[in-house]
Amino acid sequence: MKRALTPGTFDPITYGHLDIIARAAQLFDEVIVAVAASNKKQPLFSLEERVALAEQATAHLENVRVVSFDGLLVDFAREMEAPVVVKGLRAITDFEYEFQMTAINYELSADFETVFIMSQPQHMYLSSSVVREVASMNGEIEQFVPPCVASVLKTKFA
Ligand code: PNS
User: Fold this and answer.
1) Which of 15, 40, 45, 111 is the most exposed place for a label (fewest CB within 10 A)?
2) pLDDT tens across 120-156, in order?
3) Ligand 1 contacts CB of residue 8 (under 6 A)
4) Which of these, 58, 59, 46, lies nearest to 11 by C-alpha position?
5) Which residues contact 150 (CB under 8 A, 6 or more apart)?
């Protein structure tokens, strides 16, 4: 059985994340959405909230489950027995950061492989931070996030 991790902060999960997760779910037997604590980033949503939103947003995907982690991704991948990490690649600005993370993770553990899936054009410039900013200014976010996320974001900024 081939199991893959799709790691991220998911603060909150967007249609861009969901596109990558759904496409990974077609390629692998099981996909674990790994929600990182990312305490340094001071997320808007708590870890529990981010996990709950990711669970609701991926409920329709049978071979996807959501788990949180705190610590190194390489250690979590080993613990989950997931030899593949799948990440989305958006516009060119993602490349340097992802390239660095992949190289460091490879140095830390040669046990797993990082695989990139290109974002679809309509999601190329979508990010959780942009969604948070638009929501904080009462802008429309329905085209960027699933309804469960939109409603929680609206409550946050009400
Ligand atoms: O959605 P994000 O914030 O771009 O996701 C980044 C994430 C969580 C995948 C990355 O920060 C990560 O892997 N964090 C775990 C800690 C770790 O392993 N750091 C070393 C990798 S350079």
Assistant:
1) 40
2) 999 999 999 999 999 999 999 999 999 999 999 999 9
3) yes
4) 46
5) 141, 142
Full-model pTM: 0.97
The pair phi, psi for residue 44, each rounded to 5°, is -65, -45
For residue 99 the two structure tokens come to: 């390239």
Q: Best substitution site from 32, 73, 130 to test ligand 1's pocket, by max atoms within 8 Å of Cβ?
A: 73
Both tokens assigned to 13: 């999960």
Residue 43 near ligand 1, beta carbon < 6 Å: no
Atom of ligand 1 nearest to the CA of 73: 18
Considering the chain, what is the average pLDDT of its residues?
96
Handedness of CA 65, 66, 70, 73 (dihedral sign): positive
For residue 158, report the distance from its CA to the centre of ligand 1, in Å. Answer: 30
**38 CB within 6 A, ligand 1:** yes
